[in-house]
Amino acid sequence: MAKLLVKQVRSKINCPLTQKRGLEALGLRKMGQVVEHDSNPTILGMINKVKHLVSVEEVK
């Protein structure tokens, strides 16, 4: 299974509550924080909700 590195690049201030909770579900609490996740439909759906706040890289 592919791994994804997800980094928060924009602030969650003034975002809807669902997007704030999406970031927390991904494990992102601060700007610049990076987390690693497996690539599965659940994680990809959460990333899609907050794609304007994060950057995603695939790890080989």
TrEMBL record:
Ranges for domain Large ribosomal subunit protein uL30-like ferredoxin-like fold: 4-54
Keyword Ribosomal protein assigned: yes
GO cellular component: ribosome
Keyword Transferase among record annotations: no
UniProt keyword terms in alphabetical order: Ribonucleoprotein, Ribosomal protein
CDD domains: Ribosomal_L30 (cd01658)
SUPFAM superfamilies in the record: Ribosomal protein L30p/L7e (SSF55129)
HAMAP family: Ribosomal_uL30_B
Family in the record: Belongs to the universal ribosomal protein uL30 family.
Subunit structure: Part of the 50S ribosomal subunit.
Protein name according to UniProt: Large ribosomal subunit protein uL30
Source organism of the structure: Flavobacterium chungnamense
Gene name per UniProt: rpmD
